[in-house]
Amino acid sequence: MHAWFCETLDGPEALVWKEAPTPEPGKGEVRVAIRAASLNFPDLLIVQGKYQMRPPLPFVPGAEFAGVVEAVGEGVKHLAVGSHVAGFAGTGGFGSHTVAPAAVLMPLPPVFSFADAAAFLCTYGTTYHALLDRAALKAGETVLVLGAAGGVGTAAIQIAKAAGAKVIAAASTDEKCALCRELGADATINYTVQNLRDELKALTEGKGPDVVYDPVGGDLTEQAFRSIAWRGRHLVIGFANGAIPSLPLNLALLKGASVMGVFWGEFAKREPQNNAACLMQLAAWYMEGKIKPVIEHQLPMPQLKEAFTLMGSRQVRGKLVLVNS
């Protein structure tokens, strides 16, 4: 097998593409021939030593992947050699093969493309857990999506619309706003040139959004929270801006509002049955054409460093996927 190895926590530039022995699955594990893997923001943090999970060195990064089962370890019942699967294992995805616990692999129907599957579990699993499980989003409510043209942002637009909500998508360029409208957003805000609070007041007739979906952090968080509706729910997804904001908690008191943390990986681990039900609904929506990952770039697996550079430019819409030929 070939894979990208993280041998030091010096970021993407220090990753090394090299050959290694093809691993054999142990008890409860399977070996997957990886056909596609997607790049997520935590993949950058983990090779910089800044993520909450710090695997021992050396390791192969890449949390999210899809491929074909090549070998099955003892005790695995629901997967067989030849099964198509998607996985979110935390590491191991940026290579030609990986060994992963069978429990973190989702069997795929034949119509599910490997590229779509590789860009599905993390972003759509996170977003369904956030909007439907944590925020209990109801049809007719209004959702503000920050960073709406990114991987989780585009998933949030689609899932909120599938749930019957009104979506206000906020992004940093007119081109990104145009993509959000194509995905079904009811209104858009270019927060680089428009005042977020003024626009939200106008678009919601002074009420504010019922739910704020926030993968960005930084200065936008407080602006959005100051605009939230009575009994609003602010979903903390991540901090793509790089800055972890501090909120004046009197705002939560005055609005009767909630700040909700969203950590899908831990949810999937602690509540596997609830997570499986979420994924089943997402797979059904995919089959019905209601949701589909936005993939702007597909690169060969050996071009991982170029993919990190593209992601760092903040110009990528949707997801980046790496493929093995």
Automatic annotation (TrEMBL):
InterPro entries: ADH-like_C, ADH-like_N, ER, GroES-like_sf, NAD(P)-bd_dom_sf, Quin_OxRdtase/zeta-crystal_CS, Zn-ADH-like_protein. Coiled coil: none annotated. It comes from Aquabacterium lacunae. It comes from the Bacteria. PANTHER family: QUINONE OXIDOREDUCTASE-LIKE PROTEIN 2 (PTHR43677:SF4), SHORT-CHAIN DEHYDROGENASE/REDUCTASE (PTHR43677). Residues 11-322 form the Enoyl reductase (ER) domain. One of its GO terms (molecular function) is oxidoreductase activity. CDD domains: QOR1. This is NADPH:quinone oxidoreductase family protein.
